[in-house]
Amino acid sequence: MARKPKICYFQKEIPDRISYTSVLETPIGRLRIVANTKELISVLFLADNCEVEICENEITKKAKQELKEYFAGERKEFSHFRMQLPGFEGRVLRAVKKIPYGTTINYKELAELANMPYLVEMAADALEENFYLIMIPSHRIVGSDQKLHRYQAGLERKKYLLELEAKYSTEEEKKRSCMKVSKK
Q: Measuring CA to CA, how many Å separate 115 from each of 88, 111, 157, 183?
């Protein structure tokens, strides 16, 4: 009997109950996009040399296309995908979704944006629960020293994503990156 290929994930295990998968080759590694029939479940980088069985649906195809457009500099915002964002981590990740393309904020500003100004470290820790890399742009969070700190997929990827956004940002977006992000 033939053995199923081992599926490897970048740092996080994903439940077997997931039905649909797409994989996107990017300049910084392969992204595995997972959905069920109603919502996007995850967008995570695969570890090297992993095999994945691909079985796409409309949600994974749409997310894959939008991510392709993002890497080509043609997309700056993603469609509203239904995502699982429960509890404290969800509150932080919903705040991260408000950070505009080409803009960075620090962890203290993130805590304030999530309406929890005294929980800076907990807000930073919540980013480790981001199962929707790039689509929920946790790469846009930097240290108060403006240096790169903490990114679930590695600092090299974070640097690449920030440089990509800087390359394709308009002058107006570059000006906005110096302004505070609204809590609206």
A: 11, 6, 28, 8
Choosing among 3.40.350.10, 3.90.180.10, 3.30.160.70, 1.20.1330.10, the CATH entry for 7-84 is 3.30.160.70
Which residues are registered as beta bridge partners of 18?
A: none
Please tell me the CATH code under which domain 87-176 is placed. Answer: 1.10.10.10
Please report, in tens digits, the pLDDT of each residue of the chain (184 residues total): 443 444 444 434 454 455 799 999 999 999 999 999 999 999 999 998 888 889 999 999 999 999 999 999 999 999 989 888 889 999 999 999 999 999 999 999 999 999 999 999 999 999 999 999 999 999 999 999 999 999 999 999 999 999 999 999 887 776 665 445 555 4
